[in-house]
Write a structure and sequence with these properties.
single chain; 4-stranded antiparallel β-sheet; elongated
Length: 212
C-alpha cells in the first residue's frame, strides 16, 4: 500500500504541502521520533530499514516490527494524541523518512483538495495493514514453547513469500528480540530443529522442511 495510491502525480506536490510534509535523512543507529517530537508527527519510510523496539527499565529489548519502505511509523500515538514514552524507532541502515502532520492528513482542509479523501482512505488502509502485522506478532509470542514460536514465525514468512525457502530480514539478535526469548537458547533450539529435520538454514536463509 502506498500513501500516493490513486493520487495523480500532478496533485502530489500540493498534497505534501497541504499535510505539512518534510523529509529527513537518518544514519544507521540513529533514533527517530523521540518523545521530544510532536505527538501528532508521523512518518513514512522512503528508503532504508527501521526497527520498532521497546526497552524495559532493566534494559531488556523487544523487537516489535521491522519497517521497510512504504511503512508507517508513529501513527498510533498520533491518532491517539498520546506522547510516546514506550516505543523507539531505530534506523538499522541509512534511511530517509517523510514526516507529516497526522491531523492535517486525517482532516480535510479549507481548500477541499480533490485528493484529500483518497489520502485519508489510503492512510486508513495502511494503518489496518500495520495492525495485521501486530496480530501476526501476537500469534507468534502467544505460543507456549520456543519451538512453536520459531515455527510460527518462519511459517508466516514462508506464507508471505509463497515458498518454503526464504530470507528472514533479521539476524539472530533481532530474531530473539522479536520472539521475546533468550538468544543463546534460541540458537540451540534452531540447531535442534535442524537436527530433527524440521528446518535448514544458512545465516538468514531458511528452508521449512515440513512444507516440502
Amino acid at each position: 500500500m502506498d500513501i500516493f495510491e490513486n493520487v495523480a502525480k500532478e496533485d502530489r506536490e500540493a498534497m505534501l504541502k497541504c499535510i505539512n510534509a518534510h523529509e529527513k535523512v537518518f544514519r544507521k543507529g540513529d533514533f527517530i521520533l523521540s518523545s521530544d517530537d510532536s505527538p501528532m508527527l508521523m512518518g513514512i519510510i522512503q528508503d532504508g530499514c527501521v526497527h520498532m523496539v521497546t526497552e524495559d527499565m532493566w534494559g531488556a529489548r523487544s523487537l516489535l516490527c521491522v519497517l521497510e519502505p512504504g511503512d508507517l511509523m508513529g501513527e498510533t500515538f498520533a491518532c491517539a494524541r498520546e506522547e510516546n514514552y514506550i516505543i523507539e524507532y531505530q534506523a538499522v541502515s541509512d534511511c530517509r523518512v517523510l514526516f507529516m502532520d497526522f491531523g492535517r492528513v486525517m482532516h480535510t482542509c479549507d481548500m477541499m483538495c480533490s485528493f484529500h479523501h483518497r489520502l485519508i482512505e489510503n492512510m486508513v488502509k495502511m494503518i489496518a495493514a500495520k495492525n495485521l502485522e501486530f496480530i501476526k506478532k501476537i500469534d507468534v509470542i502467544s505460543k507456549m514453547h520456543m519451538r512453536e514460536k520459531i515455527l510460527t514465525l518462519l511459517s508466516q514468512f514462508a506464507a508471505a513469500e509463497g515458498s518454503n525457502v526464504f530470507e528472514l530480514p533479521m539476524g539472530r539478535v533481532k530474531m530473539a528480540e522479536y520472539l521475546c526469548v533468550d538468544r543463546s537458547s534460541m540458537t540451540r533450539e534452531l540447531a535442534k530443529m535442524q537436527a530433527d529435520g524440521l528446518i535448514d538454514f544458512d545465516r538468514n536463509r531458511f528452508t521449512l522442511k515440513s512444507m516440502e
